[in-house]
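User: Run a structure prediction on this.
Assistant: Running it now.
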Amino acid sequence: LMNAAITQHITPGAVVLMIRNGEVILDRAYGKHTYQESGITRVTDIFDMASVTKVTATTPVIMKLFEQGKLALDSPVSKYVEVLKRVPGKTDQTIREALLHEAGYYPYIKFYEKLTPLDLSFQQSDSFPLAIAKGYYLRKNYFEDVMWPTTLQSSVPSRGKFVYSDISMYMMKAVAENIMHTPLDVFVQDAFYKPLGMRSSGFRPLERFSESRIVPTTENDNWLRNMRVTGYVNDPGAAMSGGVQGHAGLFANSNDLAIYYQMLLNGGTYGGRKYFEKSTVDLFTARQSRVSTRAYGFAKATEDIMDQPGQPSASAYGHSGYTGTYVWVDPKYQIVYVCLTNRVYPDDGKTYGPAKFNLRALLLEAFYRACM
C-alpha cells in the first residue's frame, strides 16, 4: 500500500506505527520528505498534525478541566467567554454542543481573504512580529483586531446538526485559556507532553528543532504564502493566530502520539502516573450524539461499518488531520494506530491530481485484518 501511494503521488513519504496489546508491532518510515529530494523519511521525523491537534491538545485540556470541576459540559460557552453574551446567536451554545460539532458554528472561515498588503511584511519588526513562513511576517495584533471579531460575527447556520467546524475548537481554546489563565501550548506541555516523555511534541517546532527534522507540507498553496512551508503550521487560521490554535498547530512524531494514545487506551495512566480518571476517558471517547456517532472531540466509526469484519468496534475512537495524519484507538482489539503523511505536498493535489485511494483508512483496515 505504501509503495503504491508513493508511486501514485498520494504522499511523498509516511511513518506508520501500530501497537497491539501494548507491544509495538510495526514502526516504519517510507519514502522521502518530498518527491524531488534524496533525504529519506525517518521514524523520528516531526509532522504537522492539522486537526489531530483537536484531540491531542485541545480536547485533553477540556477533559482535565471537566475532571477538576472547573468546567461543565452543559454550561454555555459564553459562561467562560464573556464577550459571547453580547453576540446574538452565540449566547447559549454549550460546551457539549461544541465538542460534538453541533453548536452551529460556521465550519471554516477563510481569514486570509481579509489580508491587505499593509498586514504583511518580508521584514520582522515590532510592528510585524509574527512569522507565518520563512521571511514572511504578519502585523501585530492581527488576531485580536481582525480574526476574533470575524469569528464572533460569523453566522450560526446549523445548530443541532452535525457540521464539522474548526470554529468549535477556536471557542474551546478560548474557554480553556480563560479558565486556566495559561496559554494552551504551555499547559499541554506541562500537564501531558513533558511528564509523558513526548519530547518531540508541541506548537511552533522551529523554536526547538532543526528544520531538517520537520516534514514540509505545502510549497504552492495559492492562497497566502506560495513558498515551502516547513515548521510553520499549514492551516492558515492557525498560522495567523501565532501558530497556536484549538483546531491546528500541533507538531509531533509517531512515537509521541503512540505514547499519548496508549495512555488513553490504558484508561488514563502511563508509566505509573495517572493523567485522567478512567471514567473521564470513557465518557469523552464514547458516543455522545443522537445525530452522529461522534464522541466529545473524537471521531468514531460510522454505523454502516461499525463492528463489521475488518472494521472498527463501537468503542473505537480517533481523528484525522488535513495534512495527512491519523490516529486511532480500539479498546476492543487493544490497538493503537498512527499514520503520518504529508499528502498535501506540494500543493494539495493540484499538481498530481486527487488521491486515488484513501491510504490511511486502507492501512488501518489491513491492521484490523491482521489482528483478527
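The CA atoms of residues 210 and 231 lie 9 Å apart.
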